[in-house]
Structure formats: C-alpha cells, structure tokens
Amino acid sequence: RDLVSPDAEGDEQAIESALRPKRLSEFIGQGRVREQLSLVLESAVRRGRPPDHVLMSGSPGLGKTTLAMIIAAELAMPLRLTSGPALERAGDLAAILSTLSEGEVLFIDEIHRMARPAEEMLYLAMEDFRVDIIVGKGPGATAIPLEIAPFTLVGATTRAGLLPAPLRDRFGFVAHMDFYDVEELEQVLRRSSRLLSLDLPEEGGHEIARRSRGTPRIANRLLRRVRDFAEVRTDGVITRDIASAALNLYEVDAEGLDRLDRAVLGALLRKFGGGPVGLSTLAVAVGEEPETVEVVAEPFLVRQGLLARTPRGRVATASAWLHLGLTPPPQAFG
Ligand code: ADP
C-alpha cells in the first residue's frame, strides 16, 4: 500500500526534491499546461507585474508542487508553501499574507481543505490585495483593512469540483493535469536514473513506466524499489525481467494496478456483481475512507477503462472482469 500510495512521506520527500525539475523546460509532459503557463509567465515578466493567480487540479503525484516551484523560479521570486489543512483560522492566513513580499508566490496545497473563514479572507486578498482583520466580537467587532503586497497565489487541488465557485472564479488560469502516458513516464525515469546514476536500459524503463499508474511520483518510487532488487539480486542492471520480477514482488500488476486498486475492483465484482454500487458502500467493503477510494483509486481505474461513475453508482466495465480473470454474469453488458 505504501509503495504505491501517491502521497510522499518521510525520507521520500528529500529524494523527491532532488528529482524535481527546476525549470519549465525540464518539466516533462503536460504539453498544453506547459505552453499556456509559459505564456502567462512570460507576459507577466514583460509587464513587470505579478501574473494572474493559478489553480492546478489533478491527482496526487502529477507534479502540482513541482510546477508551483517552477513558477516561482521562472519569475525569480521567492516561494511560500502552505496547505489548506494548515489554515484553520483566518488568523493563520492573515499571518502569512501580511508578511508576503511584493511579487512573492504563495502556494496553497489542498486548497479545497481550507477552513471557511480563511477562504473568505482569501477572496479579498486575491482580488484587492487587502485583508480585513476583525477585532473584537459580536456587535462591537470592527474590521480593520490591511493592505498586502501584490502576490501570486498558486492553488493545488485533487478535487476541483469541491472548490466553491467564488474561489474558483478568482483564478485567472486553471491548469488541469492529466495522467502521463507511458512514453512521458519513460522520459521521467530516464532523467531520474541519470540523476541517481542508475543503469536503466530502455526495456527496463518501459516496464516500470507502464506500471506506474500514469504518475511520475510512483514511477520514481518504483524505480528505487527495482534498483534495490537489481542491486541485491543481480549486477544492478535494470533489465525488463528484473523490473518485472521486482514489481511482481511489490504487488504492482502488469497494468500498474496496486493493492488498493485491485481491492476496489475485486469488491465491486465479487460483492456487488459489478455494480452499480454507491461510493461509501464500496469504501466500507475495502475498509478505506470514501475520499481515499475516490481520490486515489478511482481516477486511475476510470482512466484505464475499468470502472465507470454513473448517477446510480460505480459500475465495473467488461475489461474489469477480464482483468481480474473473472467471468461476468450473463445479464451484464447485454
Ligand atoms: P503533486 O504536488 O501533484 O502531488 P509533485 O509535484 O510533488 O506532485 O511531484 C511528485 C514527484 O514527481 C516530484 O518529486 C517530481 O520528481 C516528479 N515529477 C512530477 N512531475 C514531473 C514531470 N513533469 N517531470 C519530471 N518529474 C516530475
């Protein structure tokens, strides 16, 4: 579960920062986003003004934090990092906003998880570069306006749909990050193996790439686990067979499905006859939070054509039955 979890934990963060592309030109894939963003940044630099606020949406591990760092680097401006859950009270946000320097880039990860009062303060800050500090309580409370330096907000969310419209509307540029295709992940792996001085022949890279759930973070993580295997069991060269043996050992299957993905599909097929079944029922069946199933497992299963979200609930596709080696019931799929 840890191996394929899209979130980075502990030691991994240090390795990740070493592997992060630093400039837009080094950033692999997401062609459209890259091109749009480079226009936004270049025109801001020419005008000598901070660019519009940027919102990035997409699954964990697709490069949102990396892009935020790149935005700051391209603008040659400092970057301040925080996250929605850390902004519990409006005061938490005010403390950050009031100390921003002119042109600074403020990155708020998981912006959909910000508390309501902070969110409302952010509206005004984004629009007018001003916040109202409320002093006192009840009828005697007064709002003291405070000017803040013009800054650029970069927000990231795994669930754009959860963002209130007034917040979403205040972003001048919205970037939708997609899963990466196998070739792009091969490029990510080539770059990482160079940085880590690993011997990664093309077929080995291809094998890891196609099992990486379309996600650079997972590709980099699998690369390190395959490297361990190659170094302990053989001469360190990551051939296709070595990659495949190592990934089987870590329970990453040929399509890149991990244990959670297979648990979700398995429950959908075996317990609910392929659906439709509601998200929360499905989550209980695999012993996970609905949000984990929805954010971590489902987007990839949908993209692989294994699962469909319908108004009546989650439904398995014909490929899902095939993938798990099961026979669909006769009434399914006409
Ligand atoms: P997110 O913020 O979307 O969860 P991150 O920006 O933290 O994802 O990216 C996770 C890791 O994946 C980074 O450490 C980086 O090394 C790698 N990565 C992400 N996108 C790319 C890319 N386009 N090219 C190369 N490496 C990438």
Describe the structure.
Residues 50-181 form the AAA+ ATPase domain. The structure is a single chain. This protein has 334 residues and is α/β, with parallel strands linked by helices. The chain contains 14 helices and 9 strands. The strands form 3 sheets. Strands 2-3-6-1-7 form a 5-stranded parallel beta sheet, with helices on one face. A two-stranded antiparallel sheet has the order 4-5. β8 (307-310) and β9 form a beta hairpin. α7 (182-195) crosses α8 (202-210) and α12 (279-286) packs across α13. The protein is globular, with a radius of gyration of 22 Å. The chain binds adenosine-5'-diphosphate. Adenosine-5'-diphosphate (ADP) binds next to α1, α3 and α9.
Q: What is the CA-atom radius of gyration, in angstroms?
A: 22 Å
Distance between the termini: 36 Å
| Count of alpha/pi helices | 14
Largest sheet: number of strands, sense, barrel closure: 5 strands, parallel
Name the poorly predicted regions.
none
The largest beta-sheet arranges its strands as: 2-3-6-1-7
Bound ions, cofactors and other small molecules, one mention each: adenosine-5'-diphosphate
Summed over residues and divided by their number, the pLDDT gives a mean of: 91
Roughly how much helix do the residues carry, as a percent range? 40-55%
Q: Give the class from helix and strand content and strand pairing.
A: alpha/beta
Shape: globular
Number of strands: 9
Please provide the ordered H/E string of secondary-structure elements.
HHEHEHEHEEEHEHHHHHHHEEH
Beta-strand percentage range: 5-15%
Region (Head domain (RuvB-H)): 254-334
GO molecular function, one term: DNA helicase activity
Keywords: ATP-binding, Cytoplasm, DNA damage, DNA recombination, DNA repair, DNA-binding, Helicase, Hydrolase, Nucleotide-binding
Binding site for ATP: 19-20, 61, 64-66, 127-129, 170, 180, 217
